[in-house]
């Protein structure tokens, strides 16, 4: 059962006015439908929230969407859970269906950012078919281009404080005491995905399956190649230049 909508009389005045002002500003924004493509560690996760807020878009991370659909026990969520419980991959058609449901919500009225999908050319084709039925199409594909050797340095140097989520990097953002959290002094851990062996496997999958998606959209002239090795603020500036043109 869906949660009851909040009584507007109980919403603090400042929160209500802030939301009204945000919606008013967003109503003047040009609709954008974007795809972010890049290997793990290329900076998509850093830039997506900035793009979302600046351009009034909804951020559709497919992993999060699947988990939300399963938790909400939607029709498609139930089907996805059945597949996952069997140890099977969720079908492309199911994922596209969940995206279809999401982009019809009010929060996606001015457009969306797709993050983590499509990963293959077949998925890109299915996404295009779904969007074509709605009379819309992808406007821009942001390709976070970066050399594999830089990614290895970025990812294998990441360490986190498990209970708080605080993150550090041995080169770019080291803790005051190596291996210890700055606040609590507790030991830092490295995620199992943040190792050279796991990264190599993920990069191989990216180059084999997802790089052809870039070529697929490049034929339409909608791919923007970003210099993802730059500092985050410089990449943000590149993104803004692309999206404002």
TrEMBL record:
- Reactions the enzyme catalyzes: AMP + ATP = 2 ADP
Keywords of the record, alphabetical order, are: Kinase, Nucleotide-binding, Transferase
Task: Kindly give the InterPro entries that the UniProt entry links to this protein.
Answer: Adenyl_kin_sub, Adenylat/UMP-CMP_kin, Adenylat_kinase_CS, Adenylate_kinase_lid-dom, P-loop_NTPase
Ranges of residues in domain Adenylate kinase active site lid:
158-193
This enzyme's EC code(s): 2.7.4.3
Family, similarity comment? Belongs to the adenylate kinase family.
Q: Supply the HAMAP family for this chain.
A: Adenylate_kinase_Adk
Q: How does it assemble?
A: Monomer.
| Function comment | Catalyzes the reversible transfer of the terminal phosphate group between ATP and AMP. Plays an important role in cellular energy homeostasis and in adenine nucleotide metabolism.
Identify this protein by name.
adenylate kinase
Origin organism is: Lupinus albus
């Amino acid at each position: 059962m869906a949660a009851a909508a909040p009584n507007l009389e109980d919403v603090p005045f400042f929160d209500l006015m802030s939301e009204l002002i945000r919606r008013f500003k967003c109503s003047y924004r040009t609709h954008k439908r974007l795809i972010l493509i890049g290997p793990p560690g290329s900076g998509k996760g850093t830039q997506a929230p900035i793009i979302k807020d600046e351009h009034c878009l909804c951020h559709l991370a497919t992993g999060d969407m699947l988990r939300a659909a399963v938790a909400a026990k939607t029709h498609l969520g139930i089907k996805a859970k059945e597949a996952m419980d069997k140890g099977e991959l969720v079908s492309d058609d199911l994922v596209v269906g969940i995206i279809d449901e999401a982009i019809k919500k009010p929060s996606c009225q001015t457009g969306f950012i797709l993050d983590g999908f499509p990963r293959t050319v077949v998925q890109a084709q299915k996404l295009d078919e779904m969007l074509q039925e709605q009379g819309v199409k992808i406007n821009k594909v942001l390709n976070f281009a970066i050399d594999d050797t830089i990614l290895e340095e970025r990812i294998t140097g990441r360490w986190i404080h498990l209970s708080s989520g605080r993150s550090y990097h041995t080169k770019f953002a080291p803790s005051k005491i190596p291996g210890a959290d700055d606040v609590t002094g507790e030991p830092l851990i490295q995620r199992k995905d943040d190792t050279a062996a796991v990264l190599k496997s993920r990069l191989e999958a990216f180059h084999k399956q997802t790089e052809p998606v870039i070529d697929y959209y490049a034929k339409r002239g909608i791919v923007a190649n970003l210099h993802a090795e730059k500092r985050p603020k410089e990449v943000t500036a590149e993104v803004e230049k692309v999206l404002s043109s």
